[in-house]
Every structure is written in C-alpha cells, then in structure tokens.
Amino acid sequence: MASNGGVDLADVPSVDLMTELLRRMKCQSKPDKRLILIGPPGSGKGTQSPIIKDEYCLCHLATGDMLRAAVAAKTPLGVKAKEAMDKGELVSDDLVVGIIDEAMKKPSCQKGFILDGFPRTVVQAEKLDDMLQKKGVKVDKVLNFAIDDTILEERITGRWIHLPSGRSYHSKFAPPKIPEIDDVTGEPLIQRKDDTAAVLKSRLEAFHRQTEPVIDYYTKKGIVAELHAEKPPKEVTAEVQKALS
C-alpha cells in the first residue's frame, strides 16, 4: 500500500479513517470559500478562525507558520526564504504568494482557505489576486475584525499569565482571586513583554498604517464584511456566519 507522506494508512485506526471520511463527505456539500481575516492583535481572529475552518472545511494558512514550515522542509521556496532571513531581509511578497500557491494544492485546502496575517499591503493583495486569478478563483470575503484601539488596550494590557501552566487571567474580565497570583498554585503571574501599552501602541500604529489601505482595496471590490469585534466571541461567531451565508 502506498504510504502518503510517510503515513501508512494501514496503521491509522479505523475510527480515525472513518471520522476523516465522514468529514470529507460532509465537506463535499459546502461551498468553496477563500477568506482573508484582517484585524489588530487581540481582536479575536485567533478565536474565530478555528470555528470558521471547521464549519466550512477550509485550511488555515498562517503565513508566518507556513514560511517556517517551508524553511524546515527545505522546499525550493523555503531555501530562498531562508537565504533572505539569514541576511536579515524581509521575505519577498512573491515568495510568500508562492508558498500560499503551493499550500493550496493540499487536500485540506480543496474547499478553500482562511488567510491570516497576509496580505498586509496593497501590493501583496494585488499579487495574491493575480495568483488566484491564474487558478480561476478569487477572494470571496474579507472579514474585518474592527475594534476600537482603547478596547484593545484594555483587553491586552490586562492579560496576566501563569507561565508553567499557560493559565491566563485578565485583571478586569477574569481576575485571579488574589491580584497577580495564580489561583491554583499561588505562584506569581507575569505579563508578556509585548502585552504592554507601549508595545501595543506601536503595533497598532503599524497595523493601521499598513492595513487601512488593504481594507480600502477590498472594500472597492465589495467583499469586506465589518465585524463588531468588541462583542463577546459567540456574538462575533454569529456575525461571521451571517457574513458568510
């Protein structure tokens, strides 16, 4: 029996095979969707993307992870990317689009994808469009996780983490019983270095500067759905489903 990427299907438990087959059969009836998620850090993209991925049978393309994977796998594009990274250069837009192009050939991407963290500039958006157009497809929807900077600041700068366990707290929304102390172990909580107001401010400024034009670009195409990302996650999920129905 042919092994698929080093996995012999004869060794895969029946229940896993059946589950995957049933998933694929269920997925057959789903419409194809190619989605882009845009939103600042802390806007909830990470919470919603797994839900969308499962609901619509899409693959999740996080360009940072994909680049690292391509470099690790030493694919031709990965080798080129590593050369750029080793020189301390940014990986070119064409390379990233090439890596997305390759990823789209995987069976898990057959129904479409969720792109997260790309495109960040209008030039990247244009290159992505060109590549998709050559395949005879296009971006269907851009989900804009719109949220006020002040709400984000409160969300992010209030985060406290118990490092050994990964338990997280929020000084306002989910406070520990004793400030800055883990409920379970009594050990101190820490704040991540990039969860401070100053770091957030610079990340948000960069985000708005780069990304506003990208949202304008897709708005002209009439495919942007504005989400009220400050709402509770369940309500945002409902908005996403409405936007994609």
UniProtKB/TrEMBL annotation:
Top-tier EC class: transferase
Catalytic activity: AMP + ATP = 2 ADP
Function: Catalyzes the reversible transfer of the terminal phosphate group between ATP and AMP. Plays an important role in cellular energy homeostasis and in adenine nucleotide metabolism.
Domain (Adenylate kinase active site lid): residue spans on this chain: 159-194
Superkingdom field: Eukaryota
UniProt KW keywords: Kinase, Nucleotide-binding, Transferase
NCBIfam families with a match to the protein in the record: adk (TIGR01351), PRK00279.1-2 (NF001380), PRK00279.1-3 (NF001381)
Signal peptide start-end: none
Pfam families linked to this entry: ADK, ADK_lid
Residue ranges crossing the lipid bilayer per the database entry: none
EC assignment: 2.7.4.3
Gene3D superfamilies: P-loop containing nucleotide triphosphate hydrolases (3.40.50.300)
Descriptive protein name: adenylate kinase
